[in-house]
Write a structure and sequence with these properties.
There is one protein chain. This protein is α/β, with parallel strands linked by helices. The protein folds into 2 domains: 168 residues, Rossmann fold (3-Layer(aba) Sandwich); 104 residues, N-(1-d-carboxylethyl)-l-norvaline Dehydrogenase, domain 2 (Orthogonal Bundle). Helix content is 51%, strand content 14%. The protein is built from 11 helices and 8 strands. The chain has an 8-stranded mixed β-sheet with strand order 3-2-1-4-5-6-7-8, with helices on both faces. The longest helix has 22 residues. It is globular and about 55 Å long.
Length: 282
């Protein structure tokens, strides 16, 4: 299958490498081809460093270009969260490849609105990858109101063949599933710190070493059964009215205390742990 990746930033480069590792011919389209090639190489090195796959053949299937005149069977757009930008780029692909599936890696723009803006709503589908794509198995698959069901089925089967875990988002709501959960939790984290309930470090510790540790094995719904329905009902009645209802978070830079070197170290440690888990699951 011919795959075009429109936008080869960190996300797009890793998504393109994943398709190439899965045996597809991939063309990454980027304004700065040299920078995109560096990101692709970094993605392949991540795979090699953590023994996640053989990259020799994948390298032969990857091509980077700044020329958008590419024909494909599947296009995956991964550019900044700007509806007009995404729609313009996908319109160009749609005109050159009238049968291609048009997938978007948007994390917040409704697929229905994007499909209408592209002018080919039946071919537009959301494939929202989690960061970093090579190390995170779930991918949200989002149909717009007029997305052809065969497009959803094709994308779901393709992702599953790549070793991903497709998550069907049954309604096209802003933020889909992942980001609605992520920002609901973040809103409460911000409130706890801003109101002096706990330090930023302790909130991180409770989420990382408490909630995440348990949720890694059982999700929130399974936790209800394990903890006792009556206990959860009583606690929910007491606590839900007290949870933050803020409609904005403010400038989140106030919560970034680490410098560039420390953030790089944290990212490398995260990737190493995620890669270890991924290998153990295969």
């Amino acid at each position: 299958m011919r795959v075009a990746i429109v936008g080869a930033g960190l996300m797009g480069a890793q998504i393109g490498c994943e398709y190439a590792l899965g045996g597809h011919d991939v063309t990454l389209i980027a304004r700065d081809a040299a920078a995109a090639e560096q990101r692709v190489e970094a993605s392949l090195q991540l795979v090699e460093e953590h023994a996640l796959g053989a990259t020799a053949q994948a390298r032969e299937r990857l091509r980077v270009t700044s020329d958008p005149a590419v024909e494909c069977d599947v296009a995956v757009e991964s550019v900044p969260e700007d509806l007009e930008l995404k729609a313009r780029l996908l319109r160009e692909v749609a005109a050159r490849s009238p049968e291609a599936v048009l997938a978007s890696n948007t994390s917040s723009i409704p697929i229905t609105a994007l499909g209408d803006a592209v002018g080919a709503p039946e071919r537009v589908v959301g494939t929202h990858y989690l960061n970093p794509p090579l190390l995170m198995p779930p991918v949200e698959v989002v149909a717009g109101e007029r997305t052809d069901p065969t497009v959803v089925a094709t994308v779901t089967a393709t992702l599953r063949a790549l070793g991903k875990q497709p998550v069907l988002v049954r309604r096209d709501v802003p933020g889909f599933v992942w980001n609605r959960l992520q920002f609901a939790l973040l809103r409460e984290c911000v409130w706890l710190v801003d109101q002096g309930v706990a330090s930023m470090e302790d909130v991180d510790r409770v989420v990382r070493d408490g909630l995440a540790r348990r949720w890694r094995r059982v999700g929130p719904f399974a936790s209800i059964g394990l903890g006792g329905v009556d206990t959860w009902n009583r606690a929910g009645s007491n606590l839900v009215p007290e949870i933050s209802t803020a409609d904005e978070l403010g400038d989140l830079s106030r919560f970034v205390a680490a410098d560039a070197d420390e953030l790089k170290r944290l990212g490398e440690a995260r990737d190493s742990a995620l890669a270890d888990e991924l290998r153990s699951e295969r």
